[in-house]
């Protein structure tokens, strides 16, 4: 498909090489030296409240008032992140409507957005692939864009993305150091230091954190050293350059525990009989380790009084070494797999059943798994131009730009097995003498798989916003032309495959303001993901296009102290391929080609941020939606009803309790399907194949957390954060017949010195 004729204009603009940012006027500056506010920079007002945000830049790479957006954008402020004691992204975004747990809460910042899985973090609009969770020390605020968005993530997940906006140098001397102790997930030191090297010209900031924390499960821990130095140089009153470098070295272990053999349907869902809540299968060596470096820059400039530019680049490199040991199938004393197990699938209905009689009381296991070694590199370049025109009762904003993205990875895995004890590799996990096992990879072990991957994409886009009738009506639309390339080489066989695709994606919407405080909106957006061929199931190379219709009501009342949204969304993803069910009837018959199906997500969301007084701040959300396949079947690990609320109160600056504040929050997650095996059953002759139903359902739960902060003086303060305040035992998620349990009652105390 050829690019639209307007889009090459954006490429010709890219011959410019300057860009802009903002600052406030100092007494020494005259009118010609005032640093103008860049359209790429978010401006916030502290008068609205601690959790209130009026603008975001993640929707279209430029600053936008949330009231004017035709797509749902949620913002979590730095004050909120600090109040709840954020240790990973999921701590914070669980209070955003439509976001929930996925299949593994311990690694990769895995979450579901409107039911679609999202892997890895996005930093300042650049996607990041990582095996470990991002350290929040570098994050200033979080902006969540929901639904397909072809400008910022043409190949992102259809549900949306979580964009973490990093901290930037400030033109003031300030900083803090802190140390945290606690029961679990604590033992953490932080530093955040900002220094003006040259007034109104050059500022330096360094943020860093070191964590060496034990988790509640035996032998499980997390370690992370992250340091990010950064500089901002004001080249002129209208031009600014920021450069950042991040270096990290981290290890993480997973806290999953084998599920009961009798866990089927909505009953008997618990960990394996005889295991304690803090059971660990393997030693500390069973972990994920990753070290990496990341560098990025942002150059912005106001070229004329109407034309501004942004040039941004990113480079990242990482090396990961991961091992994962699993118990495997239950076995008898001779090491022979026990069959059948108590939980069996009904081949006609696909439902899992337990007869209530069959027992498996003394199983033995041969723990085994894999050792993975992977190196990754990525680079990104973005260039955007904004032309703004103000007329009598109307204004126009035209944005054009391009992006180039490249990533590569190489690596593979070898089989790993538990080190025998007393000459035996059979282990009784319930034996009181059992201790976590070590694993080994034979020195001469061969690679099971070893691959090299290469991905490239190019994007050119044009975005137009027109505000009419003194800002009562806003019309917007965009075109994004994208080309994708993916190459894969099997280093063991030497075979290579390449896949290419091209997509022109559109979006558009309308916002009508009944008053300056009440707006109605509708938006349409598209996205397209490059899929991979599966020759074994006769699935060809393909793309998976997504589109979203979304509409709702926004309110901003009481001088911005109350901001709330009511949203209805409808997402459809096509190009969801799956094997033909007929292939399960007679495996010896010639295979039939795969079937192209779809996936939908539709429902309601409600969010609000409220600060009725300067002492009170509240944030909350509610979600009720359905994420289903073409046969109306639910997806694993997706809760379709969620809610969250957090509130804080700060005592008056005068009085006996001055300096004291506290907060209380709760998060509700409805039941969701656990694992399901395979695609279709192989039923008795005369019956059609049936889809496997979830092996079990994870029960709903409500988690309560709280904090209390006391400021002794302008330099010292202490914060106590308590996770799982009511000490409830629940299942956060599941994976491969294992369960991730809640961490027990968990207080953490942080002492901070500010300078």
Automatic annotation (TrEMBL):
Keywords for the protein's UniProt record, in alphabetical order: Cell outer membrane, Ion transport, Iron, Iron transport, Membrane, Signal, TonB box, Transmembrane, Transmembrane beta strand, Transport
Membrane topology of this protein: Multi-pass membrane protein
Domain TonB-dependent receptor-like beta-barrel: 307-725
Signal peptide coordinates: 1-23
Subcellular location: Cell outer membrane
One GO location term (cellular component): cell outer membrane
PROSITE patterns: TONB_DEPENDENT_REC_3 (PS52016)
GO molecular function, one term: siderophore uptake transmembrane transporter activity
Coiled-coil residue windows: none
Main location: membrane
Protein origin, superkingdom: Bacteria
Ranges of residues in domain TonB-dependent receptor plug: 66-160
Sequence similarity: Belongs to the TonB-dependent receptor family.
PANTHER family: FERRICHROME IRON RECEPTOR-RELATED, FERRICHROME OUTER MEMBRANE TRANSPORTER_PHAGE RECEPTOR
Designated name of the protein: TonB-dependent receptor plug domain-containing protein
Lineage of producing organism: Bacteria, Pseudomonadati, Verrucomicrobiota, Opitutia, Opitutales
